[in-house]
Hints:
alpha+beta, Uridine Diphospho-n-acetylenolpyruvylglucosamine Reductase, domain 2, 5-stranded antiparallel sheet, globular, binds uridine-diphosphate-2(N-acetylglucosaminyl) butyric acid
Amino acid sequence: MDILENSSLKDFNTFHIDVSARFFCQFNTVENLKEVLSEKKTENYDRLILGGGSNLLLTKNFDGLVLRNNIRGISITNEDKDHVYINVGGGEVWHQFVMYCIENNYAGIENLSLIPGSVGAGPLQNIGAYGVELKDVFYELEALHIRNKTKKTFSNAECKFAYRDSVFKNEEKGKYVITSATFRLNKQAKFNTAYGAIQKELEAMGIKELSIKDVSRAVINIRRSKLPDPTKIGNAGSFFKNPEVPKEKYEDLKKIFPDIVAYPQVNNVKLAAGWLIEQCGWKGKTFGDAGVHKNQSLVLVNYGNAKGEEIYNLSQRIIDSVFERFQLVLEREVNII
Ligand code: EPU
């Protein structure tokens, strides 16, 4: 196993922040991973597991071992009348897996097209978009315990999925490497096109008879029109979560801000953080190479050589100003290292 020393992480995080790792190693199999976890020279160092590096902001050099998941493979493990079960290596690129499902007519993740990142990172924050979340098609995952190197299977319920959240961001944080995940896709599509932007896009595309390929294309068009392409402009998607507030708090805010954008949930109301941030005047602002994207204020960007710290400081100023204006505390969605 090649363990690199003082290696740049610039190409391994979608913010393209140029910091280095004391040790860096890519693994292709679970056996590989066990081997590197047993290496004497790195055993006393912190570990950071990287998938696509699309949901993190690196603010300093990492004085530990960075492990990049490269476990590949997509295979059907089971099938019944209505479903197909597909096991996917944690190092597969999420969008490529979505494309595989579209080509084979396996339905359920077409709304999750073009989300950057790897399959193994998806369950961590229960990735979601346009009315669908990973948990809706997730069956189970295999993970390796970093310290005692034992395998464990987590069912959907054991992952404790919630909005951009799972057990791996809470009580099991930093303890496991997700080595593969199994998804349960539908043989018959149940389209989820309620999200306004999808309907509008499908109409613009002139679609009469809907297929999962059309929904995927519509989602790709929408994402391309408003979200920066991380291969061109450094970013990690939504930097903040949409805050959820009690109905009463929402009613109070609506009296003062009648245009506030909100999505009612079962017990509370989710507010569009992008709207709150735009109202505070941040949309399209740049400070050196750090900035707020011009089409979507939820997305912070690195236009070149921004330091992680500059992006972090910008995010703190945004949090402070949203609090001052709306008395709401925005939470970061991106992991800060
Ligand atoms: N809005 C503004 N100004 C902005 C941005 C948004 O006023 O700068 C308002 C608009 O009214 C817009 C509404 O907010 O119609 C919602 O915006 P959008 O449809 O872009 O969705 P979002 O709530 O801002 C969430 C997810 C995105 C996901 C979209 C679509 C979170 C944190 N973000 O954003 O996920 O693509 O919905 O489902 O939940 C990601 O997690 O990286 C991500 C991009």
